[in-house]
Design goal:
The protein has one domain. It contains 2 helices and 4 strands. The protein has helices at about 15-20, 25-30; strands at about 1-5, 5, 60-65, 75-80. The two termini are about 10 Å apart.
């Protein structure tokens, strides 16, 4: 696929986030990006810890939530199902 004159990997050309970034910066981001896969239900970041990575969901879906002091899971944001056609 080609977006803003650059070749990008599987479906990333349609990312609303990446479309808002100048193509030279997208090239820099993708040059150091590492595709990763996670099983359903895997926690990939933990509340209260510093952010060491930036994630761009291209396939599947995700949930961002907060765990209260009482242990209650409070959903803050849902990331809808994504695939190569809608990434």
């Amino acid at each position: 696929m080609v977006s803003q004159g650059i070749a990008v990997r599987s479906g990333l050309a349609d990312s609303r986030f990446l479309r808002a970034i100048p193509s030279v910066d997208v090239k820099s981001i993708l040059a150091v990006a590492t595709p990763r896969r996670y099983l359903a239900g895997t926690v990939i970041v933990n509340q209260g810890l510093p952010a060491d990575y930036w994630f761009l969901l291209t396939h599947g879906r995700g949930q961002y939530f907060f765990i209260s002091q009482g242990g209650r899971k409070i959903p803050l944001m849902w990331f809808p199902r994504r695939n190569a056609q809608s990434a």
